[in-house]
Amino acid sequence: MLSNTCAPVIALDGPTASGKGTVALRVAAVLGWHVLDSGAIYRLAALTVMNHDVVLTDLTRISDLAREMRIHFEQGRILLDGVDVTSSIRHENVGNLASELAKEPVLRQGLLERQRAFRTWPGLVADGRDMGTVVFPDAPLKIFLLADVDARAHRRYRQLVEKGESADYEIILADLKARDERDMNRLVAPLKPAEDAYVIDSSALTVEQTVERVLALWRQCPDSALL
After folding, report:
1. Domains and CATH numbers, the chain
2. Strand pairing of 198-201 and 141-146?
3. Among 37, 43, 198, 226, which residue is least crowded by beta carbons within 10 Å?
4. Which UniProt keywords apply (predicted)?
5. What is the pLDDT of residues 170-187, one digit of tens each?
6. Cα-trace Rg, the chain
7. For 151-161, what is the mean pLDDT?
8. What is the pLDDT of residue 225?
9. What's the whole-number average pLDDT of the chain?
10. 122: cis peptide before it, omega within 30°?
11. φ/ψ bin of 81: left (φ > 0), alpha (ψ from -120 to 50), beta (otherwise)
12. Is 19 labelled as part of a ligand binding site?
């Protein structure tokens, strides 16, 4: 029997609000594969830090808490230590803290094996910022999903409004620009396309068009013929 480390991976990276989460879910649904939302794992770490009132300079404690998290993805829901936190981890303050924590090498190392454990048969669509460069560098297909920051801010604004939450477009835009700056310039695993990644700009594409482009690239991939 083949080991899980041989299971195929589509690594889908990109900046915040580029649509990669939605695309990853739909691609995985078509292929019948598993999904890894790595951003959710960092948000879960941020929520854990907030719940335990840990000071951000106590990196050892933060890393220990991250390793101890009991995470379960269940039919679109995310459970942390048995509690449904699907909505709460999407709050902007949690996302901003997750971006801050993601700069810390000790935390990234602590979460690396947890992310790789999601690689199981029949395959995995992994959504994040360093899936193709660090977590799954041997993925047979790597995608870097772009969208200009204004388009991403409008998407995030619409998402919040549709959920009935208050939203300020200018604040969202400023937060995205700040998050992009942190993600692209951090010393460990900065946000950038893998050298062998296909870059897709989704600014003017629908979700369906973006999904089809990813699936078309997978069909052209030699590994797809082996399944």
Report:
1. 8-218 (3.40.50.300)
2. parallel
3. 226
4. ATP-binding, Cytoplasm, Kinase, Nucleotide-binding, Transferase
5. 999 999 999 888 888 887
6. 17
7. 89
8. 61
9. 89
10. yes
11. left
12. yes
Residue 3 marked in a binding site: no
Helix, strand, coil share of the chain (percent; to 5): 55, 15, 30
**Entry field: residues in the chain:** 227
User: Is position 17 annotated in a ligand binding site?
Assistant: yes
pTM: 0.85
The backbone region for 76, taken as left when phi is positive above 0, alpha when psi lies in -120 to 50, beta otherwise, is left
210 among annotated binding-site residues: no
Give residue for tokens 């300020």: 168
How many Å apart are CA 61 and CA 68, to the nearest integer?
Answer: 11
Residue type, 39: G
Give the neighbor-by-neighbor strand order of the sheet with 198-201.
34-37, 124-128, 9-13, 141-146, 198-201
Residue 123, marked binder: no
Q: Annotation-wise, does 21 bind a ligand?
A: yes
Q: Tell me: is residue 206 an annotated ligand-binding position.
A: no
The C-alpha angle 193, 196, 198, rounded to 5 degrees, equals: 65
Give, in order, the Cα–Cα distances in Å from 105 to each of 59, 77, 153, 182: 10, 28, 28, 14
With tokens 């303050």, the residue in question is 93
pLDDT at residue 2, as a whole number: 55
Task: For residue range 70-91, list pLDDT tens digits in order.
Answer: 988 777 789 999 999 998 998 8
Of 118, 110, 113, the closest CA to residue 33 belongs to 118
Residue 163 labelled as part of a binding site: no
